[in-house]
Design goal:
It is globular and about 70 Å long. Helix content is 53%, strand content 0%. Helix 3 (87-107) runs antiparallel to helix 4 (120-142), helix 4 packs across helix 7 (176-192) and helix 9 crosses helix 10 (234-242). It has helices spanning 38-55, 60-77, 87-107, 120-142, 150-154, 162-171, 176-192, 199-204, 206-224, 234-242, 250-253, 257-260, 294-304. It is mainly α. The chain has one domain (33-247, 283-311). The protein contains 13 helices and no strands. Residues 243-266 have a biased composition (Polar residues). It is found in: Nucleus. Residues 243-276 are annotated as: Disordered. Keywords: Nucleus.
Length: 313
């Protein structure tokens, strides 16, 4: 359930700095469309929506309809006004595109019991949604226009979308088109997020540990299949397979992503870099787990997304 505070603080209005002046006697009228506050305004709207979605005990179908309405509202209020030549507005448009996929992935799962198994339709839908989310995130990472706003893009990049894709590659049988797209997005995700390949990160972050458990299984399955049309770089395969090896000495065994995968441009200001996860920041929602079969992977996934705070908005 989402935690809603009892305070009556009003949401900041979508305004420009010029709309505020010392002599004003009343609040200015909120602007429609692009403003200097637009990126923050989108996040405020989504935060309110997530809180309400967590309070209501709706069916997945009703939640999906609510998410689709949110997408339409954000498109009408903000996205259609974005000038993509302006970096922050371009980032805002990426954020809006990401929201619908992310909320659908995290909220519209079937209420399974321990006696039920996910249907083929549900597995396909989950994989498709996760791929759409990874595609949007990877496109934004590859885009050089918003380089000054990489910290902003980190706010809506979520590595948990990688989990159902790796699960499908490790244990499922997606069609050839989905298989090729899945490996493409997986390789791009690791390319733009080299910390996923760090043993130290896996030790300190439950999600990274679970991804490290799935990745070698996906690679092993890939090598056993007739997948000649899917050409994965040898260095990439070696890095994923290395995650299944025990590592007791981080200095001796940490895989350097920069040695084999060219990293994207990083912000020069350390304050804008991706936050470092330390052992003083335990992750309650993605506990470390070794996933040996599909049933364990699905149980882990469904248990993990039950908590609203996974959304991170």
């Amino acid at each position: 359930m989402a935690y809603v505070t009892p305070f009556d603080t009003k949401r900041p209005l979508n305004l420009n700095d010029a709309d505020l002046h010392p002599n004003m006697m009343t609040c200015p009228t909120e602007r429609q469309g692009s403003t200097e506050m637009m990126f923050c305004s989108v996040r405020y709207v989504v935060s309110d929506f997530v809180q309400q979605l967590g309070i209501k005990n709706d069916s997945p179908q009703n939640k999906l309809q609510a998410i689709q309405k949110l997408e339409q509202d954000l498109g009408d209020r903000f996205a259609r006004h974005c000038d993509e030549s302006i970096p922050l507005q371009r980032v805002t448009k990426f954020l809006i595109k990401t929201i619908g996929y992310r909320l659908t992935l995290m909220h519209c799962c079937l209420p399974l019991t321990t006696e039920e198994n996910p249907s083929r339709e549900y597995k396909t839908q989950t994989l498709s949604t996760a791929l759409l989310l990874l595609q949007t995130q990877n496109v934004s990472s590859a885009d050089v226009t918003p380089d000054r706003y990489r910290w902003h893009t980190k706010l809506f990049h979520n590595s948990e979308a990688l989990f159902p894709v790796l699960r499908a590659l490790a244990f499922d049988n997606p069609d050839q088109e989905a298989l090729e797209e899945a490996w493409k997005q997986v390789s791009l995700t690791y390319h733009f997020n080299p910390r996923l390949l760090s043993p130290a990160s896996s030790d300190q972050h439950g999600l990274y540990s679970s991804l490290a458990s799935l990745a070698p299984k996906a690679i092993t399955r890939h090598s056993q299949m007739d997948a000649s049309s899917i050409d994965l770089p040898a260095t990439f395969i070696e890095q994923l397979m290395a995650q299944q090896q025990p590592h007791t000495d981080p200095e001796a065994t940490t895989v350097s992503a920069s040695a084999t995968i060219q990293q994207p441009a990083q912000p020069s200001d350390p304050a804008l870099s991706e936050p470092v996860i330390t052992e003083g920041q335990p992750n309650m929602y993605w506990q470390q787990s070794h996933l040996d079969n599909d049933d364990q992977a699905w149980e882990y996934w469904l248990n993990s997304i039950e908590n609203e705070e996974n959304l991170g908005f």
